[in-house]
Design goal:
The chain has five helices and twelve strands. By secondary structure, it is an alpha+beta fold. The strands form two sheets. A six-stranded mixed β-sheet has the order 3-4-2-1-12-11. A six-stranded mixed β-sheet has the order 5-6-7-8-10-9, covered by helices on one side.
Length: 279
C-alpha cells in the first residue's frame, strides 16, 4: 500500500513537471518578430504652419506628424526665413522637432525668404533634386521635389517625389502633370512613390494624365480639405505602376486646426524581390 502511494505521488509529481514544462515556451515556439517591411507615407499641406485659428505654430505641425509616426512625408506650403513666419526656417525646424532627415525645395522667393516644399524622411536622403514645372507669365512658379532615400538589406531604395500643382485652373495643372510624368520617367530606380497636393479631384483630366503612370493608393472619399469639415480629395499618395507594394491601409488624420488641410497617410508593405534590395 505504501509503495502504491509512493508510485501515485511520483506520477503526480511527474505530471506537474510536465505541465510546468509546457507552460514555458521553448525557443522554437517563440513568435518571430514581425519582419515585414512596412513604409508609412504622408502628404501634408501645412499652410506655412498657420492654423485655422490664425495661430502660427510650427510645434503643433510637428506634433501632428510625430503622433502619426510616418516614415516619409511630403510637405507643401513651407516657409523658409519669411517675414510672415517670423524668419523661421520651417523645414529645418520640423526636421529638428520630428527627428527626421529633411530637405527643402524653393518654389519662389517670398517676403525676404523662400516658399516651397519639403521632404521629411526617417532614413537618410542620398540625393535631392528640385524641378520647375511649366507655368504661364504672372502665375506662381510650381515645383516637384525628388529625394532618393537609400535602402538597406530589407528595404529598397525609394525615389520619393513631392509636388503641389497650381490651384487656379485645369489649364495650368495639365502641362504641369505632363512634365511631372516626364521627369519621373527619367529616374532609373524601379521603386517610386509620389505624394502631394495636386489641387485636382480624382476624376479630373489632371489626375487622368498622372494615372497613366501612377496608381492612387487612397480612395476617392479620402477627403482632406477643408480641415474643419473635409468634403473633397485633392491630396494624394501614389505608387508607380507595376509597383511591388501591398496596400495595408490609408487614413485621413483627424486634425482640424493645425492647417487648412488634414494629413493623408498611406501604409504600405513591401512585396518586392531581392533584386530590388540594396545590399
Amino acid at each position: 500500500m505504501k509503495n502504491l502511494r509512493i508510485a501515485i505521488t511520483l506520477l503526480l509529481f511527474l505530471a506537474m513537471l510536465g505541465a510546468a514544462a509546457k507552460s514555458v515556451t521553448s525557443p522554437a515556439e517563440v513568435p518571430e518578430p514581425d519582419d515585414r517591411v512596412v513604409v508609412r507615407v504622408m502628404s501634408y499641406n501645412i499652410k506655412h504652419c498657420l492654423g485655422t485659428d490664425d495661430v502660427l505654430n510650427v510645434q503643433r505641425i510637428a506634433n501632428v506628424i510625430k503622433a502619426a509616426n510616418p516614415d516619409i512625408v511630403a510637405l507643401q506650403e513651407v516657409d523658409r526665413l519669411t517675414t510672415r513666419s517670423q524668419r523661421v526656417d520651417q523645414a529645418a525646424e520640423l526636421g529638428r522637432l520630428t527627428g527626421m532627415h529633411v530637405r527643402f525645395g524653393k518654389a519662389i522667393n517670398y517676403q525676404g525668404g523662400e516658399y516651397g516644399q519639403a521632404i521629411l524622411s526617417r532614413w537618410p536622403i542620398e540625393s535631392f533634386d528640385v524641378h520647375q514645372l511649366p507655368t504661364e507669365a504672372g502665375q506662381e512658379q510650381r515645383i516637384a521635389i525628388v529625394a532618393t532615400i537609400r535602402g538597406d538589406q530589407r528595404r529598397p531604395t525609394i525615389v520619393f517625389a513631392g509636388t503641389h500643382l497650381h490651384h487656379a485652373d485645369e489649364s495650368l495643372r495639365l502641362p504641369q502633370a505632363v512634365r511631372l510624368i516626364s521627369l519621373m520617367r527619367q529616374y532609373p530606380q524601379p521603386v517610386k512613390l509620389l505624394a502631394g497636393d495636386m489641387n485636382a479631384r480624382p476624376d479630373s483630366l489632371t489626375m487622368q494624365v498622372i494615372k497613366a503612370d501612377w496608381v492612387d493608393l487612397s480612395p476617392p472619399n479620402a477627403h482632406a480639405i477643408p480641415s474643419s469639415n473635409p468634403n473633397r480629395k485633392i491630396d494624394y499618395v501614389m505608387a508607380a505602376k507595376r509597383h511591388a507594394w501591398r496596400l495595408v491601409g490609408w487614413q485621413v488624420i483627424n486634425e482640424p486646426v493645425a492647417s487648412d488641410h488634414r494629413p493623408l497617410m498611406v501604409t504600405l508593405e513591401w512585396q518586392g524581390g531581392d533584386s530590388l534590395f540594396i545590399r
